[in-house]
Design goal:
5-stranded antiparallel β-sheet, 19 strands, mainly beta, globular, about 250 residues
């Protein structure tokens, strides 16, 4: 993909390959606003409404529907047609009662799976890093830009901090509280969010060190048919222990 720089505009030919747009018919496309997801791992809300959900035939129609407040992302109405929608985000259409989750899918990279309104209230988020803040409390910085504060009673012995980087926390979108935690370790279920195995689901069989950076470790997974495959630790997103904590595409696991 060509360099996109800091321009406010984006040519269709250099847009991420998985965006379902007509690259040779139109010169320009929507460039996502800076937000919780990088341009390589998101779909602008306008393209989601027009080209994925098929609620509009043109960009102008999609912009009007979005500006009217017809779409919620993670429980909040978004009126910016450039808003970046990425992995594990929930998409709600109040007028039709439809609710979806954005999940990694093979070849298409990102796709939508229907979920219940109850499930739309929670969201799995991967812990990207941790920082120590005022009074020794621990702040979890998650993959979608949100932060969760873990309050500790003794900064010298933070027993409340049971969370490790690249593990997954199930967060309530209503109050930002942690409901469950899935560590990144052998035996847990994980979905691949990037690379050539994107969208594949399997149990972690082994984590092989070998690079200077932990995120570059090689992870071996086993799918439901017993087939082994490997990917970089950077692309591994834990989603459950014995079963997924969220709905996946049919046949994924």
């Amino acid at each position: 993909m060509a360099r996109m720089g800091s321009s406010r505009h984006l040519k269709a030919l250099v847009a991420p390959a998985f965006w379902p747009i007509l690259r040779k018919e139109y010169k320009w496309t929507v460039k996502p606003s800076p937000g919780p997801h990088s341009i390589e791992r998101c779909i602008p809300l306008l393209i989601l409404v027009r080209d994925v959900l098929k609620y509009a035939k043109t960009g102008r129609e999609a912009r009007r529907l979005i500006a009217e407040g017809n779409f919620k992302i993670d429980g909040r109405i978004r009126r910016n047609y450039k808003y970046p929608v990425g992995v594990m985000d929930t998409v709600e259409i109040p007028k039709t009662g439809e609710t979806y989750r954005v999940v990694p899918v093979p070849t298409k990279v990102l796709g939508l799976v229907k979920i219940t309104p109850e499930e739309a209230r929670v969201k799995p988020c991967r812990i990207e890093n941790k920082t120590t803040v005022k009074n020794g409390h621990i702040q979890l910085n998650l993959h979608d830009g949100r932060n969760v504060l873990i309050k500790v009673s003794d900064p010298k012995n933070p027993v409340e901090d049971a969370y490790d980087t690249l593990g997954t926390v199930l967060v309530s979108l209503e109050d930002n509280k942690i409901l469950d935690y899935v560590p990144l370790e052998k035996g847990v279920l994980a979905i691949v969010i990037g690379g050539r195995n994107v969208g594949r689901v399997g149990k972690i069989v082994d984590i092989i060190p070998g690079a200077l950076k932990r995120r570059m470790y090689i992870v071996t997974l086993q799918d439901k048919h017993g087939n082994l495959f490997q990917t970089s630790l950077e692309y591994v997103f834990p989603i459950g222990r014995d079963k997924p904590i969220v709905t996946l595409p049919e046949g994924a696991w």
